[in-house]
Amino acid sequence: MKVVAAEASLKYYLPVVEKVIIQSRARIFQAQTRHPDKILSLFGPHSVVIRKGKAHKPNEFGRLVRIDEVENGLVSNYTVALGNLCDQQQWMPALQAHVELFGRAPRLAAADRGFWSNANETAALQLGVKQIVLPSCGRLCVARPARQNEPPLIWRTRKLKEK
Questions:
Q1: What is the tens place of the pLDDT at every residue in 103-151?
Q2: What is the DSSP string of the chain?
Q3: Terminal Cα distance for the chain, rounded
Q4: Dihedral sign from CA coordinates of 100, 103, 105, 109
Q5: Exposure string (b/e) for 20-46, b if CB count within 10 Å is 16 or more?
Q6: Cβ(98)–Cβ(127) under 8 Å?
Q7: What is the reported pTM?
Q8: Are strands 131-133 and 108-110 parallel, antiparallel or unpaired?
Q9: Closest of 111, 60, 59 to residue 89, by C-alpha
Q10: What torsion, rounded to 10 degrees, do the Cα atoms 6, 7, 13, 16 define?
Q11: What would the pLDDT profile of 62-78 be if each residue is shown by its tens digit?
Q12: Where are the domains of the chain?
């Protein structure tokens, strides 16, 4: 049985290692950084390059996963991104998955600053989210700190009237 297992392992790894050697030669001797069907990991064939714009880690490898939680840290949904989606593109699918699962919009929706955009705030309000916690990126405009300190229903009413 050990021989059969080793043979199956070799049948998988030998062609993959040959591809790695070909792409390594192209990179080292011909300075080709882009190679079709690039192998990033021998042991994780599903891995992709993730570029999040971090200065200390310009490239990471793996998959982006969005995990949605409800009260008490219960995981209600998760998604493995096919590509390198930015967080802003995942806000509405997360809220829509919540509505589909629970039949209504969440009372409170929160995420980190990567999810923030005016469009995401507005879309969440239109969906029926009463309290949105999305820290904005960069410096705050003059009106934003005052608006963030208001009770959520006042902010929601004013935001809808501004349209």
A1: 999 988 988 888 888 899 889 999 999 888 888 777 777 777 776 676 6
A2: -HHHHHHHHHHHHHHHHHHHHHHHHHHHHH-----TT----SS-TT-EEE----SS-S-EEE--EEEEE-GGG-EEEEEE-SS---GGGGHHHHHHHHHHHHSS--SEEE--GGG--HHHHHHHHHHT-SEEE-PPSSSPPSHHHHHHHS-HHHHHHHHHHH-
A3: 70
A4: negative
A5: beebeeeeeeeeeeeeeeebeeeeeee
A6: no
A7: 0.64
A8: parallel
A9: 111
A10: 180
A11: 778 888 988 888 899 99
A12: 2-62, 65-162
Q: Which two tokens stand for residue 76?
A: 């209600």
Nearest to 106 by CA among 120, 80, 125: 125
For 37, the token pair is 């069907």
CB atoms inside a 10 Å sphere around CB 106: 22
Q: Which two tokens stand for residue 24?
A: 């390594």
Main-chain dihedrals φ then ψ at residue 69, nearest 5 degrees: -120, 150
